[in-house]
Amino acid sequence: MEALKPLIETALGDFVERHTGVRPAFKPSKRAHLATNAFLRGGAEHAAALLSAHAADCALFGRPLIEAIRTENGWVLFFLTADVPNAYAETLPPAPEPDESFFERRLQIMTRHADAPVPDDPYVLQGFYAVLFSAPRAEETLLSAARHLDGTARVALEQRLHRVGKLLLWERRNAK
Fold first, then answer.
1. What separation in angstroms does the CA of 111 have from each of 96, 129, 170?
2. In the chain, is it the N or the C terminus that has fewer CB atoms within a 10 Å radius of its CB?
3. CATH assignment of 4-81?
4. DSSP code, position 69
């Protein structure tokens, strides 16, 4: 079973290269899920407009990968969908047992809730993609993803994180 991270990097890299002629390197971003400042012909604004016009062509598992593309300070920022992680999660067996780390134990707790799609919540997606692409402070970002909500809304969101925990436990196994 191939890990999700390289599948996303390949699909997104192929898409950008097909439309700009440049194969970019992607970095996790605080402002988006992934970003690149590759030497794109015509500058970041031109590249983002071109890529945005064709964003529907970028798919993985038959699902759209890109939600939005923006620019900031010469960087092209990519916001990814929850569709691809959901499609990938449907192919995975139950989550593996966690190691002894606090974070993996928290991921295991997430998987104990009923199976539900990865929430299309911007804070959850930011945390999920931050962990997937090893952003600084990613674990903290994910574990605090529901803090913007109060009471029952917070509990309801936390109970929909089954696939997030399952996916990230498998990704950590594939990385070892």
1. 10, 17, 12
2. C
3. 3.30.1360.70
4. E
